[in-house]
User: Which sequence fits this backbone?
């Protein structure tokens, strides 16, 4: 297996000849579109199909019920768990199902020996995120017990195999009550063979200030849940200045801290499957980046004749281009940035990785992952 960075004058055919791999395979693995133009600096996954696996890895991916069946079925072979996004709840502990039916996703997951997980988020009856629901529910013993019971019934009726608790912006004063909710949910569901995971904002210390962090007790939640997901992405986000979504130096800091309080065999590291396109100049509070797929990002570079650069500190590709008199800056993921993340997971011997999200197919990512690890299947 090789990662080839395109130089000036190279073509798919010259590259395939160099590695003695068919051009058809290079085109397919990297999702290239006719006439197969390449960008200078573009990273290509090149493999002759020989596997060099090191160890088992658990792999989770988040998806909405409106995901393309084709994308889902091309992704499920590489997933241990499929987290279906998302169930909400009321202040009284009643579950609010996704707007679209998710049964077909559960059935598809079962065909590929992938465990379907119900993702629970504080979505209210209007379909909006409402973090006041968290406080209302965990401070009401009857509502909390009702929610846990409703989760159990839904898991049994739908065929889910676990629950992923994705609560954000928890108030500092609710920290211990939230931990207790996770623990009680895990105890109740484990009794019936179901697993419970919890998402953790990317902290780097016990007492990190901020609404994202103060309500999450890493040590206690690591003990309360069966496993955790470190949400190691969104340094670069919709309203931030242009930068990497998941710079490896920042991701490493979070992982290093997490390992001081949570066993490695309980930790999944988050990986973004998307990038952002910012219009420049950036103006705080005004500029709003557009979310794009990783394959789409490369096509934008090709269409605009842009050279793709690589930030060695962040281990992330980026480029700029001009359109309608406006300069744009794009940061995204490619096989080099994914390799850096997989290497960190391997180095720290973590339980696995979790992708937010799998709505767009990034085939080279899955092939690279499959090259290096045995995917856990239960």
Assistant:
């Amino acid at each position: 297996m090789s990662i080839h960075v395109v130089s000036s004058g190279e073509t798919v055919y010259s590259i395939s000849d160099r590695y003695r791999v068919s051009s058809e395979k290079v085109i397919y693995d990297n999702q290239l579109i006719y006439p197969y133009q390449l960008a200078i600096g573009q990273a290509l996954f090149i493999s002759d199909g020989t596997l060099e696996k090191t160890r088992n890895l658990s792999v989770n991916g988040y998806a909405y019920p409106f995901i393309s069946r084709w994308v889902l079925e091309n992704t499920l072979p590489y997933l241990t768990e499929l987290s279906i996004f998302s169930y909400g709840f009321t202040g009284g502990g009643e579950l609010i199902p996704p707007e679209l039916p998710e049964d077909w996703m559960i059935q598809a997951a079962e065909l590929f020996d992938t465990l379907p997980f119900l993702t629970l988020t504080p979505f209210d009856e209007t379909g909006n995120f409402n973090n006041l629901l968290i406080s209302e529910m965990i401070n009401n013993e009857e509502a909390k017990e009702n929610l846990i019971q409703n989760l159990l019934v839904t898991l049994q009726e739908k065929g889910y195999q676990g629950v992923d608790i994705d609560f954000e912006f928890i108030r500092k004063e609710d920290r211990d009550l939230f931990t207790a909710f996770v623990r009680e949910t895990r105890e109740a569901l484990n009794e019936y063979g179901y697993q419970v995971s919890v998402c953790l904002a990317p902290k780097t210390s016990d007492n990190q200030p901020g609404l994202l962090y103060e309500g999450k007790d890493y040590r206690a939640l690591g003990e309360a849940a069966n496993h955790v997901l470190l949400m190691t992405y969104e340094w670069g986000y919709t309203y931030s200045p242009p930068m990497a979504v998941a710079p490896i130096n920042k991701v490493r800091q979070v992982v290093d801290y997490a390992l001081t309080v949570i066993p490695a065999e309980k930790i999944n590291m988050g990986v973004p499957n998307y990038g952002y396109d910012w219009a420049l100049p950036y103006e705080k509070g005004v500029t709003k980046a557009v979310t794009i797929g990783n394959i789409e990002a490369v096509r934008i570079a090709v269409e605009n004749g842009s050279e793709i650069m690589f930030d060695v500190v962040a281990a992330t590709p980026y480029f700029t281009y001009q359109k309608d008199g406006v300069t744009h800056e794009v940061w995204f993921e490619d096989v080099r940035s994914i390799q850096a993340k997989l290497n960190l997971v391997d180095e720290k011997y973590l339980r696995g990785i979790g992708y937010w999200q799998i709505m767009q197919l990034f085939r080279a990512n899955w092939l690279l992952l499959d090259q290096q690890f045995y995917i856990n299947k239960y």
Observations:
- The chain has two domains: 1-50, 55-273+334-375.
